[in-house]
């Protein structure tokens, strides 16, 4: 079993800052568990007990729908180079949409993007560090820019139409509140 902590240490925060990819897991009380890879410049450690991550437009909107029903969230980081380490932050999450009072406070932390859909705030209750000795080595080449290109082509109006068409419900039919809380 790994080591457990009540908050992120300075070493954990330094490790997180060096990662190019992280994974987010959410689940409602019933239905499908969601596990999503995230990348790019989309995560900020606010303090030792708070992580904020920017959710860009995608084909699904599972995390938002799940967090509205059950705020449990796990964010995981893996060392794919250097010393082995798997770091998990467990806690309760809150989803912010463009129409929410705290939106402007947090969206300013990230690069501007027409694809910015939600910001999630994870209130960390527990951190676990485990060895990660079986995680393979991978070399980072670059971030993908496919989503940025697609989003820019859609523009703001196209992205919002996409949200209405594709992002209102999870694959299990749970509401994401994207239309109501984004002012659409």
UniProtKB/TrEMBL annotation:
InterPro entries: Pyridox_Oxase_N, Split_barrel_FMN-bd. SUPFAM superfamilies: FMN-binding split barrel. It comes from the Bacteria. This is Pyridoxamine 5'-phosphate oxidase N-terminal domain-containing protein. Transmembrane segments: none annotated. Residues 14-131 form the Pyridoxamine 5'-phosphate oxidase N-terminal domain. PANTHER family: PYRIDOXAMINE PHOSPHATE OXIDASE FAMILY PROTEIN (AFU_ORTHOLOGUE AFUA_6G11440) (PTHR39336:SF1).
């Amino acid at each position: 079993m790994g080591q457990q902590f009540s908050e992120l240490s300075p070493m954990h925060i330094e490790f997180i800052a060096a990662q190019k990819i992280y994974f987010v897991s959410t689940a409602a009380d019933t239905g499908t568990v969601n596990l999503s890879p995230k990348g790019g410049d989309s995560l900020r450690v606010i303090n030792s007990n708070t992580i904020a991550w920017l959710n860009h437009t995608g084909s699904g909107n599972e995390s938002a729908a799940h967090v509205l029903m059950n705020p449990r969230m796990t964010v995981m980081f893996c060392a794919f180079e250097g010393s082995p380490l798997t770091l998990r932050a467990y806690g309760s999450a809150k989803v912010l949409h463009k129409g929410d009072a705290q939106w402007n406070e947090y969206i300013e932390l990230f690069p501007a993007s027409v694809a910015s859909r939600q910001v999630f705030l994870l209130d960390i209750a527990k951190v676990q560090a485990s060895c990660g000795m079986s995680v393979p080595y991978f070399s980072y080449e670059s971030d993908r820019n496919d989503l940025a290109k697609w989003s820019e082509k859609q523009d703001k109006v196209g992205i919002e139409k996409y949200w209405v068409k594709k992002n209102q419900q999870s694959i299990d039919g749970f509401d994401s509140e994207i239309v109501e809380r984004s002012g659409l």
